[in-house]
Every structure is written in C-alpha cells, then in structure tokens.
Write a structure and sequence with these properties.
Oligomer: single chain
Distance between the termini: 63 Å
Number of helices: 6
Shape: flat
Strand order of the largest sheet: 1-2
Number of strands: 2
Length: 172
C-alpha cells in the first residue's frame, strides 16, 4: 500500500481524526517539554537566527524539538494508516455508535449519587481515623499523672513523635 493512500478511506473517520489529533497534541507537548529541557544546556542554547519583527530567536534546542515533533508526527501518521490500527479504529467507532448513551438527566442523577457516596465514605473514613488516632494516642502515649498535669510527654513518646515527624515532615 502506498504511503499517501488511505486504507479504508471514509470508514471510521471520526475515530481516526480524534486519535490523530490526540497523538499530535501529545507530540507537540513532548516537543515543547524537550525544548524547555534543552534550553538549560549550553550547547543547545546557542542562537542561530533571530527574527527581528517577531522577536523570535531560533536556537539549537528549538531545531531539535521541531525535528523530534516532525518525526513523531510522521510516525503517528504512518502508524494510524496501518491496516491493524485502521481496523481497530473503524471497529471502535462502529461499536460507539451502538452504545445506548444516558440522557442528560440520567447522567446528572448518577453523578450526584456518586458524589454523595464519595462524600459519605470520606466522612466515615475521617471519623474512623479520628477515633482510632485518639484511641491509639490514649493507649500508647499516656503520660504519668505528674507529667500529665504539666502537659509533658514521657521520653519514649517524645522519641516516637520525633521518629514520626522524620517520616512525615508535614506532620501527622
């Protein structure tokens, strides 16, 4: 099959376009990240050309990033035109057309149920955490009566707290 000829032209066009755009967006993001990464090195920061009216400086890092994005775009276009990839995307689009999508109200009701369930479970886990934390502190960090009046903790409890703060710098 020639490179510029489309396999199964007209079939699965929406899935193909969305897959291509997604891959091209990832390639562009990767190229931008590569450009920013290479700007920190001395060899890639050398200015080759400056465009006066745009204020754009073209350096080695930008050329490397553009070549990498172009190579990725070429590879993605080639990969998306292979028979196996095209068949997968055509079948995916056909199956997505068969799906019975919920109405806007059904989707809203389901989302509300999920949010309420998550909030309930979050509160329940918070309650369990507070109760167990209080119980364990009561059992293991009890200060003697004389020290409890001053608020001082025993030496072993202080050591455990220091060890805990070393493990969890933000506190626990």
């Amino acid at each position: 099959m020639p490179f510029l000829e489309f396999y199964k032209k007209g079939q699965g066009s929406l899935a193909r376009i969305l897959a291509l755009l997604s891959c091209f967006a990832l390639a562009a993001w990767g190229g931008y990240s590569l450009w920013k990464l290479l700007q920190g090195s001395d060899w890639a920061n050398a200015t080759l050309v400056t465009v006066p009216h745009l204020g754009l400086t073209i350096d080695v890092a930008m050329i490397v990033a553009v070549v990498a994005v172009a190579a990725l775009a070429f590879g993605v276009a080639w990969l998306m035109n292979r028979p196996r990839s095209v068949d997968l995307l055509v079948e995916t689009e056909a199956e997505m057309r068969k799906v019975s999508w919920p109405s806007r109200q059904e989707a809203w009701n389901s989302s509300v149920i999920v949010v309420i369930t998550v909030l309930f479970l979050m509160g329940l886990l918070f309650f369990y955490d507070v109760v167990l934390n209080s119980l364990l502190r009561f059992l293991f960090y009890r200060a003697p009566v004389a020290e409890a009046a001053t608020g001082a903790l025993p030496a072993d409890a202080v050591d455990l707290l220091a060890l805990g703060s070393a493990w969890f710098p933000g506190g626990f």
